[in-house]
Amino acid sequence: MGRRSFWWQAALVALISVMVGRLTAEIQCNDVVAHVLPCETFLLSGDARPSDACCRAVRSLDKIATKSRADRKAICRCFKDTARSFPVNLAKAQQLPKLCKVAERVAIDPKVDCNR
Q: How many domains does the chain have?
Protein backbone atom coordinates (compact mmCIF):
# COMPACT_ATOMS: atom_id res chain seq x y z
CA MET A 1 0.00 0.00 0.00
CA GLY A 2 2.79 2.44 0.88
CA ARG A 3 4.62 1.80 -2.39
CA ARG A 4 1.51 2.51 -4.48
CA SER A 5 0.92 5.71 -2.55
CA PHE A 6 4.50 6.82 -3.21
CA TRP A 7 4.14 6.31 -6.98
CA TRP A 8 0.78 8.09 -7.00
CA GLN A 9 2.30 11.08 -5.18
CA ALA A 10 5.32 11.10 -7.51
CA ALA A 11 3.06 11.07 -10.55
CA LEU A 12 0.97 13.90 -9.11
CA VAL A 13 4.08 16.02 -8.42
CA ALA A 14 5.33 15.37 -11.97
CA LEU A 15 1.97 16.37 -13.45
CA ILE A 16 1.82 19.57 -11.42
CA SER A 17 5.39 20.42 -12.45
CA VAL A 18 4.53 20.02 -16.12
CA MET A 19 1.39 22.14 -15.76
CA VAL A 20 3.16 24.94 -13.89
CA GLY A 21 6.05 24.84 -16.35
CA ARG A 22 3.62 25.26 -19.25
CA LEU A 23 2.05 28.30 -17.60
CA THR A 24 5.35 30.13 -17.43
CA ALA A 25 7.10 28.74 -20.52
CA GLU A 26 7.82 31.07 -23.38
CA ILE A 27 8.80 30.28 -26.91
CA GLN A 28 12.31 31.46 -27.70
CA CYS A 29 12.94 34.04 -30.43
CA ASN A 30 15.15 31.69 -32.42
CA ASP A 31 12.20 29.25 -32.53
CA VAL A 32 9.89 32.03 -33.77
CA VAL A 33 12.37 32.97 -36.50
CA ALA A 34 12.72 29.30 -37.48
CA HIS A 35 8.92 29.08 -37.80
CA VAL A 36 8.68 32.02 -40.19
CA LEU A 37 11.78 31.15 -42.22
CA PRO A 38 9.62 29.72 -45.05
CA CYS A 39 8.17 33.26 -45.37
CA GLU A 40 11.56 34.82 -46.09
CA THR A 41 11.04 35.25 -49.84
CA PHE A 42 7.66 36.88 -49.28
CA LEU A 43 8.85 39.18 -46.48
CA LEU A 44 12.20 40.22 -47.93
CA SER A 45 11.73 40.09 -51.69
CA GLY A 46 9.20 40.64 -54.41
CA ASP A 47 7.03 37.53 -54.01
CA ALA A 48 3.44 38.68 -54.39
CA ARG A 49 1.94 35.98 -52.16
CA PRO A 50 3.24 33.82 -49.34
CA SER A 51 3.99 30.21 -50.25
CA ASP A 52 1.99 27.28 -48.91
CA ALA A 53 4.98 26.43 -46.69
CA CYS A 54 4.93 29.97 -45.32
CA CYS A 55 1.25 29.78 -44.47
CA ARG A 56 1.70 26.39 -42.80
CA ALA A 57 4.45 27.97 -40.70
CA VAL A 58 2.24 30.94 -39.83
CA ARG A 59 -0.58 28.60 -38.77
CA SER A 60 1.85 26.60 -36.64
CA LEU A 61 3.07 29.76 -34.93
CA ASP A 62 -0.55 30.85 -34.43
CA LYS A 63 -1.23 27.61 -32.54
CA ILE A 64 1.69 28.37 -30.24
CA ALA A 65 0.37 31.91 -29.71
CA THR A 66 -2.97 30.53 -28.51
CA LYS A 67 -1.35 28.47 -25.74
CA SER A 68 -0.50 31.27 -23.35
CA ARG A 69 -0.20 34.99 -22.93
CA ALA A 70 3.50 34.53 -22.17
CA ASP A 71 3.98 32.89 -25.58
CA ARG A 72 2.11 35.73 -27.34
CA LYS A 73 4.29 38.31 -25.57
CA ALA A 74 7.47 36.43 -26.47
CA ILE A 75 6.41 36.20 -30.12
CA CYS A 76 5.54 39.89 -30.13
CA ARG A 77 8.92 40.87 -28.68
CA CYS A 78 10.68 38.67 -31.22
CA PHE A 79 8.76 40.24 -34.11
CA LYS A 80 9.74 43.70 -32.88
CA ASP A 81 13.40 42.81 -32.46
CA THR A 82 13.61 40.99 -35.78
CA ALA A 83 11.93 43.83 -37.68
CA ARG A 84 14.67 46.16 -36.42
CA SER A 85 17.44 43.80 -37.51
CA PHE A 86 16.25 42.71 -40.96
CA PRO A 87 14.79 44.64 -43.91
CA VAL A 88 11.36 43.04 -43.50
CA ASN A 89 8.63 44.57 -45.63
CA LEU A 90 6.28 45.60 -42.80
CA ALA A 91 3.24 45.96 -45.05
CA LYS A 92 3.67 42.39 -46.28
CA ALA A 93 4.28 41.09 -42.76
CA GLN A 94 1.03 42.69 -41.63
CA GLN A 95 -0.81 40.93 -44.47
CA LEU A 96 0.33 37.45 -43.43
CA PRO A 97 -2.52 36.69 -40.98
CA LYS A 98 -5.15 37.57 -43.59
CA LEU A 99 -3.38 35.87 -46.51
CA CYS A 100 -2.78 32.72 -44.43
CA LYS A 101 -6.26 32.80 -42.90
CA VAL A 102 -5.34 33.03 -39.21
CA ALA A 103 -6.49 35.40 -36.49
CA GLU A 104 -4.06 38.20 -35.71
CA ARG A 105 -3.23 37.26 -32.13
CA VAL A 106 0.08 39.11 -32.17
CA ALA A 107 0.28 42.57 -33.69
CA ILE A 108 2.95 42.90 -36.35
CA ASP A 109 4.10 46.44 -35.71
CA PRO A 110 7.45 47.67 -34.42
CA LYS A 111 5.62 50.22 -32.23
CA VAL A 112 3.28 47.77 -30.50
CA ASP A 113 3.34 47.42 -26.73
CA CYS A 114 3.93 43.69 -26.24
CA ASN A 115 2.77 43.87 -22.61
CA ARG A 116 -0.81 44.54 -23.70
A: 1
